[in-house]
Write a structure and sequence with these properties.
The chain is an alpha+beta fold and 164 residues long. It is 32% helix and 34% strand.
């Protein structure tokens, strides 16, 4: 993967322009109900951006940061994390279909891990659908361990890392 080819940017769902752009991106990505279910099982098909925001990005859920990955100005990946007491909770990792298996999901995960260390937070958590074998394998390779089961047929995974 050519590092120069890809750029990371923070977006905010409290910004109208970011919402307008992401609504278009997700409406395209989530045309397949299986993809929507793997990324956000609490949502129903067809994808509705307002539901996405209200169920996942309300201010009362804590500080949420979303990062997109772009290639030549086009958004090809997305991830979010919520800063909770002494941990980062990762969610909504999604890579556009034709860019999968190029190491972009790993790049987004590593960025969040780097940010957790900068914030002196050593615990990262996430939930992943049990049927999402590729994601589970990625998380295991990155050092995440299964710590339990969750609703929506998902498993809880966690990673603790030490300052290097």
């Amino acid at each position: 993967m050519d590092e120069q080819e890809y750029t990371l940017e923070e977006i905010s769902y409290s910004q109208k322009e970011d919402c307008r752009i992401m609504e278009s991106v997700f409406s395209s990505w989530f045309q397949n109900p299986k993809t929507l279910n793997l990324v956000s099982p609490s949502l129903t098909y067809p994808f509705r951006f307002k539901d996405w925001i209200s169920k996942n990005y309300s201010e009362k859920r804590g500080k949420i940061i979303s990062i997109i990955i772009k290639k030549e100005g086009w958004i090809i990946g997305h991830i979010s994390y919520r800063i909770e007491e002494k941990k980062f909770h990762i969610f909504h990792l999604c890579i556009e279909k034709e860019y999968r298996e190029l190491g972009l999901a790993k790049k987004l995960m590593k960025e969040i891990e780097k940010r957790s260390l900068i914030n002196n937070i050593n615990t990262l958590t996430l939930n992943v659908m049990t049927k999402n074998k590729k994601a589970i394998n990625l998380y295991k390779k990155l050092g995440y361990k299964k710590v339990g089961d969750n609703k929506f047929k998902s498993i809880k995974m966690e990673k603790h890392h030490e300052r290097g």
